[in-house]
């Protein structure tokens, strides 16, 4: 008996196969172009040779040579091959397949993949523009009566975690992280005077659109954390923090989103340390009460 996954025909990654076979023979310049294409396949579909060259610090002639060295007639041929493999959308299976094929069962390469992704990402997150955005976001949070944290998928866990950190530091905070109609119950917690922290995606899901609409109705300002937000998210936000999570083709890294959330929480606590300390003192009192044996026990 075959399972659905066994019966489903897997698309052949012709570009990936050629890169694995010929990548080691490429010069450093050609390899830089090939690696860029491999990590940004969907982006490359809309780029010219000059634009790819600008991203790889090479020339358009080098881009064409790299494409031809991998066995394609030219950039159009490459794009047709990529488009045929990618289809309409990139699934989690596709991302993991691309990631594992790139790493070639090498544990050291896997460690480096995560390390390098975070090291590069930290540099991006702490650029001057992002620092200014972090300052602006913390000022909005400081003046808010409550802080809502929207995130679904992997970000749902981060929304819960950040809400707990904020509560511990004396803030009224709540997660908006359910999907479907269950999100409606959570949205009832949003009040005028709150601020909304949204962990956004490249596309705006129905839950995100509904959350933005409620924020608009209540005139709640929006702080957006995203690597490539849709216009629906980006145009509505008062503050946008750029949070990279790897390339569009490989398994995303969520650690940088957590880093940004912790920067917001710690930065907010630093602006009003007395508030955080008083809240933590109350919390430890609760701990002692909970641990104390019941009377008459």
TrEMBL record:
Task: Extract the Gene3D superfamilies matched here.
Answer: Glucose-6-phosphate isomerase like protein, domain 1, Winged helix-like DNA-binding domain superfamily/Winged helix DNA-binding domain
Q: Could you list this entry's UniProt keywords, alphabetically sorted.
A: Membrane, Transmembrane, Transmembrane helix
Q: Which residues cross the membrane?
A: 140-159
Pfam families from the UniProt entry? HTH_6
Could you tell me the Gene Ontology terms of the biological process aspect for this record?
Answer: carbohydrate derivative metabolic process
Keyword DNA-binding: yes or no? no
Which Gene Ontology molecular function entries are recorded, alphabetically? Answer: carbohydrate derivative binding; DNA binding; DNA-binding transcription factor activity
Q: Which residues form the HTH rpiR-type domain?
A: 13-89
Q: Which domain of life is it from?
A: Bacteria
Under which name does UniProt file this protein?
A: Transcriptional regulator, RpiR family
| Organism expressing this protein natively | Xanthobacter autotrophicus (strain ATCC BAA-1158 / Py2)
Highest classification ranks of the organism: Bacteria, Pseudomonadati, Pseudomonadota, Alphaproteobacteria, Hyphomicrobiales
């Amino acid at each position: 008996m075959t399972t659905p996954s066994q019966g489903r025909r897997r698309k052949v990654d012709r570009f990936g196969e050629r890169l694995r076979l010929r990548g080691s023979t490429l010069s450093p310049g050609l390899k830089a172009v090939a690696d860029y294409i491999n990590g940004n396949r969907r982006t490359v579909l809309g780029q010219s040779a000059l634009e790819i060259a600008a991203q790889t610090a090479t020339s358009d002639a080098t881009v064409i040579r790299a494409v031809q060295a991998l066995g394609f007639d030219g950039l159009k041929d490459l794009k047709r091959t990529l488009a045929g493999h990618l289809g309409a959308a990139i699934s989690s299976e596709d991302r993991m397949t691309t990631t594992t094929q790139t790493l070639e069962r090498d544990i050291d390469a896997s460690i480096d993949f995560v390390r390098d992704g975070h090291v590069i990402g930290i540099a991006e997150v702490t650029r001057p523009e992002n620092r200014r955005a972090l300052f602006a976001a913390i000022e909005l949070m400081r003046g808010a009566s409550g802080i809502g944290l929207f995130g679904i998928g992997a970000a749902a866990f981060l929304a819960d975690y950040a809400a707990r950190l904020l509560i511990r530091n004396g803030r009224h905070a709540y997660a908006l992280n359910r999907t479907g109609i269950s999100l409606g119950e959570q949205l009832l917690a949003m009040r005028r005077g709150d601020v909304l922290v949204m962990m956004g995606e490249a596309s705006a899901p129905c839950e995100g659109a509904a959350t933005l609409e409620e924020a608009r109705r209540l005139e709640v300002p929006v702080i957006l954390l995203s690597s490539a937000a849709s216009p629906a998210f980006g145009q509505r936000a008062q503050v946008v923090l750029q949070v990279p999570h790897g390339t569009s083709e490989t398994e995303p890294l969520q650690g940088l989103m957590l880093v940004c959330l912790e920067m917001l929480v710690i930065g907010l606590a630093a602006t009003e340390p007395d508030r955080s300390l008083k809240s933590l003192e109350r919390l430890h009192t609760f701990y002692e009460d909970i641990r104390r044996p019941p009377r008459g026990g």
